[in-house]
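Please decode residue identities from the backbone states below.
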């Protein structure tokens, strides 16, 4: 549903239960932030805004610079795990599909390379996302020929293979891709595609990556927002307000 905080709602078929969202963590951090702001200014700060603000702080704490967050979002009333609702690009998506997925949200190919690859400069990938590339790429019984050899343990592998910056949000991962060390299939294919490779190369050698990444995050944060009288500002990020009132009244 976009940037309306729908992923925070609990429920047996809510958005957070969808397969692409199973690895999402940090819900309790948003809960803590919501509790804090509700004590000071109840009914003012939406859960959707808190996600955007927390993302900004996570980028800053990861060394990715600082950017200004637009606020004023309202929280959505609907959360569904339906595949038509949770349209997140997977690691085996093709370059044209990735470009189309971001274009559908009003974002350019440059935005896509900034956001999709830039965010992969921090953190780890679970081996379930890599096993096909390593052992049986496209049913060949062999590794992906575009992949340089890198170390994979039984559980996870650093996305950024630079040993000095796996936890730093910088342009190092773009440099990895040019060396054929992109861990996820889509990332490496972006580095080989004739249309997106120049974007990868430009970012790999840029000195203004933090500013450009921040600007792309702001554009992403404007996708599917609710404003004005749309939606609501939840008292709890996990349930809509009617459920909160009903629970309090017994």
């Amino acid at each position: 549903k976009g940037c309306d905080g729908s992923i925070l709602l609990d429920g047996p078929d809510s958005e957070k239960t969808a397969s692409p969202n199973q690895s999402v963590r940090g819900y309790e951090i948003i809960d803590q932030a919501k509790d804090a702001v509700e004590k000071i200014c109840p009914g003012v700060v939406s859960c959707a805004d808190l996600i955007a603000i927390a993302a900004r702080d996570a980028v800053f704490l990861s060394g990715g610079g600082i950017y200004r967050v637009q606020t004023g979002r309202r929280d959505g009333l609907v959360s569904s795990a339906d595949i038509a609702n949770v349209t997140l690009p997977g690691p085996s998506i093709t370059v044209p599909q990735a470009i189309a997925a971001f274009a559908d949200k009003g974002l350019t190919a440059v935005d896509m390379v900034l956001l999709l690859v830039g965010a992969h400069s921090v953190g780890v990938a679970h081996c379930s996302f890599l096993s096909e590339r390593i052992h049986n790429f496209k049913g060949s019984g062999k590794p992906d020929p575009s992949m340089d050899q890198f170390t994979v343990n039984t559980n996870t592998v650093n996305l950024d293979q630079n040993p000095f910056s796996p936890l730093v949000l910088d342009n190092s991962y773009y440099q990895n891709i040019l060396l054929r060390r992109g861990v996820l299939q889509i990332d490496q294919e972006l580095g080989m595609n004739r249309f997106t490779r120049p974007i990868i190369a430009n970012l790999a050698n840029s000195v203004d990556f933090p500013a450009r990444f921040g600007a792309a995050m702001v554009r992403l944060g404007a996708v599917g927002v609710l404003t004005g009288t749309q939606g609501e500002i939840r008292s709890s990020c996990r349930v809509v307000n009617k459920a909160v009132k009903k629970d309090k009244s017994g």
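Observation: Strands lie at 124-126, 156-158.
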